[in-house]
Amino acid sequence: MLLVGCIALLLGWMGIGLAGLLRPRSVALTGRFLFPLGALLGFALAGLAAASLVGGGIERLIVPLGLPGLPAHLRLDPLSSVFLVLLGASSGGISLFAGGYFRAGEGTPPGLLCLQYHLFLASMGLVLIADDAYSFLVAWEVMALSSYFLVVTQHRMAEIRSAGFLYLLMAHVGAICLLLSFGVLQGGSWQFTFAAMRAAHLSPGWAAAAFMLALVGFGAKAGLVPLHVWLPEAHPAAPSPVSALMSGVMLKTAVYGMLRVGLDLLGPPVWWWGLAPLILGLLTIFYGVLFAAVQTDMKRLLAYSSVENIGIVFTGIGLTIVFAGSGMKAVAALALLATLYHCLNHSFMKSLLFLGTGSVLHATGERNLGRLGGLIHRMPWVAWLTLIGTLAIAGLPPLNGFVSEWLLLQSFLFADHLPHAFVNLLIPMGMALVALGAALAGYVMVKFYGVIFLGQPREASLAQAHDCGWLERVGLTWLALGCLALGLFPLQVINALGAVTRQLIGAAVPQASPHWWLLAPVPGRPVSYGPLVFLTATLAVVLLTVFGVRLTYHQRVRRGPAWDCGFGALTPRMQDTAEGFGQPIRHLFQSFFEIERELPAPADRAPHYRIAIRERIWKLAYEPIAGAVERLANTAARVQQGRISIYLLYSFATLLVLLAVALMS
Amino acid sequence: MSALDWITQVLEMVVALAAAPALLGWVNQCRAWLQNRRAPSLWLPYRSLHKLFHKEAVIAENASPLFRIAPYVVFGAMVLAAGIIPSMGTRLPLVVSADAIALVGLLAAARMFMTLAAMDVGTAFGTLGARREMMVGFLAEPALLMVIFVASLVSSSTALPAITEHLASGHLGLSPGLAFSAVAFILVLLAENARIPVDNPATHLELTMIHEAMVLEYSARHLALMEWGAQLKLFNYVCIGFALFLPWGVATGHIGPVGLLVAIPALAVKLAAAGAGLALIETVSAKMRVMRIPEFLGTAFLFAVLGLLVHVLLGA
Predict the structure, then answer these.
(1) Domains in chain B: boundaries
(2) Out of B101, B106, B142, closest to residue A406 by CB
(3) I need a surface site. Which of A22, A356, B16, B111 has the fewest CB within 10 A?
(4) β-strands A557-560, A593-598: how paired?
(5) Would you kindly state where each structural domain of chain A is located, as residue ranges?
């Protein structure tokens, strides 16, 4: 029954989308009515999926849709439920925000935008409940296309069109790999239902091939290095709610697909498969966070931060497979928990941050960090809610980002029991990279928050900035509350996720503590974490300090001009810009970046400093590949002469060849 | 959880609060003696704090509430951290809720609030200090985490008391992995507490400052809390070092009030020795240029990773 409810809600989303076409230019209809209604459906979907997750059952349904003889198989199991909860809960917050965000005159008319948006939501839902390769790929393609149209909302700008093209291209490179992967997975039965794939017996070589193809296909969607190049282009191009949806939710559908293929369809995994996602994931963490640290565009910075977080998730997937393949089921379950938990966390905190940048963008019209500053005074709602997301994504206790990193590090600490000597040496490097990534994420987030919201306004026009509207506030608050709840009640979340680890690994993480507030997931080791006590103790100490100071001494405060060591002549332009704050990283990791710098000459009347940073991967890999494709296409183009007599000649020659072939055989 | 455990818990925080300024005073005294100067009084840090608390606070006009909250958060985090580190006893009720990874997270949270507050007023020196502090932090924090991981792998737990109990009960020699991490830890301690090769706590030159540049805009009680917090941070780091590498004298298990009474003088002796050692290091080394700091901390990070590798290769 829950599955039928989910399908009804997905159909409801499509209906809302179509309703937007009734009055395509009306912001009042879409913004005040349709988007909030979509948000309600999202919350309902999250509720239904949560009920299914707690029940732990599996529901199947065959719907006679699509081509004759190819009905759509649908299925709701714990794995899809988790991701449906993620989809419903985060998209609810994002839709509420979007209701207040979209305005007239932003490229695509609001009604059409509403259709694309809700089609995007419904297709993501369908990806999660599809139970055969056919409907999965159809939903996957609808998801890619609808999000492409959302990315190019501002289609009058050339760079946004080219960003959209890059996104579409990478989406299809990935889709081809998925197609091939499913082709291998059916294992000669020519049945494309997932049930048949689970039953198929593949030889080890073919199974590995299917896994690696899936890794490339889903990795391209998720943004795994070196297939991440579309993310930093597409996220800044899209309107902020769409960026939030793509980064917060769509990337997770790729993670879902990876888990579905790697741990479910392929049966018990072989341990060395896990090395590929593990190593790529670790590289992605480091690469993503380094580039995030040197960005000057706030949405681009967040896009690279998403790359980093996807790296954490794939590291978790890799560890899960290595442990599960080595027979350490309890630890594999722990690593899988960390993976799923981080997906949930990232979906809330990254959506929150992207929406925060959206509000800033609306209020100031500026995406460049170097022209912002001091917005905490003008936009307190956005600033304080974004602070929660900032602290969460920096992995600070007692917020949610810390929980998943804690779980991941705990599962790393079991790695010295692995029976593979070579991998044992890899693990310390892995831990070092995860730790370094977490610390650098803190650097990135201080830069992000400090430059946008703190300090003095770097431009005079920022004085006119205004706080966001009430629908936007509700959406932001919902996501911030999600970050808090996921951080403070990890045990309840983990108990709910237990159904997934039982389904995929066949083991659950035991709870070694009798207390409901204490997370103790490691059997036989005195390891525990209690965020509620942690928060209470921190608050108690801080409040005691406040009252202690107040009671013992006076409370006199005087406001005066900033002291600044008495220099006095310093202006707001002398604060660190984004380039300035990222300078140590740029300097230290020079060899990673392709830096183009324009320095002013000594006698310059109007000195100007400009620095542009690109990824080396463009010159090393993508541009040669694009060049080769273009040369190949040019060679093939010689066949096309544009004269009808030539084409008739081709037809005649083909006919002759076919006749010859027919006569020979 | 007996009443004695709670007493130990509160005692640890109170002792940290009371002794942290004295530790700094002691380091300054030793430094003065080593440099043939007349030493300031051991009680000078207390007098400075007292004076600061009595003054009227002057806050910049454009400071946001974050600026006023930050000193309390930083100070509170350091007090809480003192309660998590087993400096005298290992039966601490709070530790169940916060293991060593959470401790590193707590220290990172304090750092984050401090840097955000430094950027809040929007002065050139504040942002400069914040940027440098994060530059120190992004290498020092993972190095500290790796040091803790070596000890965690040795003792199969990330809870600091369990680590201390395991190391205190076992053989006396350092394991090779721990030896590497001990070197890494000393480097991290110097960097995190703004000591000499990395930052000069006595500098008056703004351009070379790290920690001092961040608190330039603070005055009176806010400055007092920041300073006290920094003293607590030094105290905490030294105690983390004791917990990981010199766990002797700590009351392990249910020893009772006698064990606690032994633990206090043991801690005092260890602190005095560590303070003298710190002063010696600071006297024989010179402050390095800012862009050399990552090399210094990179060395610490590499040592910590080496420690882990050595442990995995030899141990297990």
Answers:
(1) 3-314
(2) B101
(3) A22
(4) unpaired
(5) 268-551
